[in-house]
Design brief:
Layout (H helix, E strand, L loop, with lengths): L22 E4 L2 E4 L17 E4 L2 E4 H8 L59 E4 L2 E4 L18 E2 L5 E2 L1 H8 L55 E4 L2 E4 L18 E2 L5 E2 L1 H7 L21 H7 L30 E4 L2 E4 L18 E2 L5 E2 L1 H8 L51 E4 L2 E4 L18 E2 L5 E2 L1 H8 L17
Antiparallel strand pairs: 1-2, 3-4, 5-6, 7-8, 9-10, 11-12, 13-14, 15-16, 17-18, 19-20
Length: 490
């Protein structure tokens, strides 16, 4: 039996056998790798930019030139108005497709069963549906402008043909002012014969009168649901829902109901019914006083009485400074007493105070820290403010005794060990021998202020610093003492 080689598919360009190692597939045909290029410009192609048309290959640009739609509105970029068919690319140096161009035979279908455009059978792979009828993909185009259609922009006309939306609007859509798309906005083909212009209808909402108190508050006509706008429980025509003063069209966001039962925009409402004068209104109406006399402006001006003594309080319950009643909105607290915010300042320099700066003095007044230190703080070298030893009146400053000299005496054995007055918890200092005021807690000899780290309890019931304690009660003689007093026998 003679050997019969396997038949391989032929390349549509060169009509030679195509083997698996070099084949490229497009449109159901197999091409050589070297033949897989554009039939017009000769550009090498791949699967992303190849377009097949009747066994011939094209790049996307050449296919659009040769077979794509032409004219205004088609194409892209500078080629928007291009009528180029690619004829300048069909020279002698360009490889011409040698694939045989066979006429496309269309099998006719029975009447009413095939494509409504060409009458041929429509197979599932190429069918496009419109109103239950199947079209070929190539026949699925507008009946007027032949624009390619899809399921998004197809429109079926009453003549059982298919159109794009623009052509359908021109042929079957409404005519006149306000209809159509693009250049067909002012289309009035139905009036072209008679020469009449489109008639504009003005609707009078007051033709159908409503019962008193039930219709539109502006025109008195009946308000139907399709045109109803609500404001404060009343129904308005959409056409009548405008500002009473400037006739600006309103909606539910910017409408304001006035006390005269009419509606206004926010600006007109503010001018007519809002507060007037300095600090009110908006924009250029900051000082707006339309419609008001000087007397009315003065009468409506906010009044503020700065006199805190106008309302007297019962004795011992008001502000310690002025004696007036102190309300919660203006109160300031200091040592259990309530002060007006206006009165809560230093009694000496009148500096405004707050809870962190105020110091309660023994005279039941409040002071800033500086004035408190000048009046009640310790005096002398090392105390006070710079310069330390200043004497403003030419005389030597009087040494102020920091120990208490007034107040309740403590019970025997329970008061301060130094002054004998009662010691409260906020100012007490504790030693081995008893309680002390903070101001009395100092060395009995040199007067140096002490604390729990450097105080020493003496056998006589007093407290001393370490140096004075060692001098008075420490061991004496060689090897003891402090500094130059090491050998002292005093």
């Amino acid at each position: 039996m003679p050997f019969k080689p396997v038949e391989n598919p032929k390349c549509p360009k060169c009509q030679k056998s195509v083997y698996a190692a070099e084949e490229r597939v497009a449109g159901g045909y197999k091409f050589h790798k070297s033949c897989f290029k554009c039939g017009l410009c000769g550009k090498m192609l791949d699967s992303t930019n190849v377009t097949e048309h009747e066994a011939e290959l094209y790049c996307k640009n050449c296919h659009a030139r040769k077979y794509g739609p032409k004219g205004y509105g088609f194409g892209g970029g500078a080629g928007c108005l291009s009528m180029d068919t690619g004829s300048h690319l069909q020279g002698d140096d360009v490889v011409v497709n040698r694939a045989p161009l066979l006429p496309k035979a269309i099998a006719k279908a029975p009447e009413g069963e095939g494509c409504p455009k060409c009458g041929g059978y429509v197979y599932a792979a190429e069918q496009m549906l419109a109103r239950g009828r199947a079209f070929h993909k190539s026949c699925f185009k507008c009946g007027d402008c032949s624009k390619r259609l899809d399921s998004v922009n197809v429109t079926e006309g009453p003549d059982k043909d298919i159109y794009c939306k623009v052509c359908y609007g021109k042929n079957f859509g409404p005519k006149g002012y306000g209809y159509g798309q693009g250049g067909g906005t002012l289309q009035s083909d139905t009036f072209s014969v008679s020469g009449q212009a489109p008639k504009i209808t003005v609707i009078d909402t007051a033709v159908i009168k409503a019962a008193p108190g039930q219709g539109c508050p502006r025109c008195g006509g009946v308000v139907f649901a399709a045109e109803e706008v609500l404001a404060k429980g009343r129904q308005w025509h959409r056409k009548c829902f405008k500002c009473h003063d400037c006739t600006k069209t309103l909606d539910s966001i910017i409408a304001c109901d006035g006390p005269d039962r009419d509606v206004y925009c926010k600006t007109c409402y503010g001018k007519k019914w809002g507060p007037h004068g300095y600090g009110f209104a908006c924009g250029s109406g900051f000082l707006q006083t339309d419609g008001l006399t000087e007397d009315q402006i003065s009468a409506n001006r906010p009044f503020y009485n700065p006199d805190t003594t106008s309302i007297k309080a019962p004795p011992g319950q008001g502000c310690p400074r002025c004696g007036g009643m102190v309300f919660a909105a203006e109160q300031q607290l200091a040592k259990g007493t309530m002060w007006h915010k206006k009165c809560f300042n230093c009694a000496e320099c009148h500096r405004p105070l707050d809870s962190t700066l105020a110091c309660d003095g023994p005279d039941r007044e409040i002071h800033c820290r500086a004035c408190y230190a000048k009046l009640f703080g310790p005096k002398g070298f090392g105390f006070g403010h710079t310069p330390t030893l200043v004497s403003t009146d030419g005389a030597a400053p009087v040494i102020h005794d920091p120990r208490p000299n007034s107040g309740p005496r403590g019970v025997a054995g329970q008061g301060c060990r130094r002054c004998g007055f009662a010691v409260f918890a906020a100012e007490q200092m504790i030693s081995k021998n008893g309680l002390w005021h903070k101001r009395c807690f100092s060395c009995a000899d040199c007067g140096r202020s002490l604390d729990s780290t450097n105080q020493n309890d003496a056998p006589n019931g007093e407290i001393y610093c370490r140096g004075c304690y060692g001098r008075n009660f420490g061991p004496k003689g060689v090897g003891f003492g402090m500094g130059a007093g090491t050998l002292t026998m005093a």
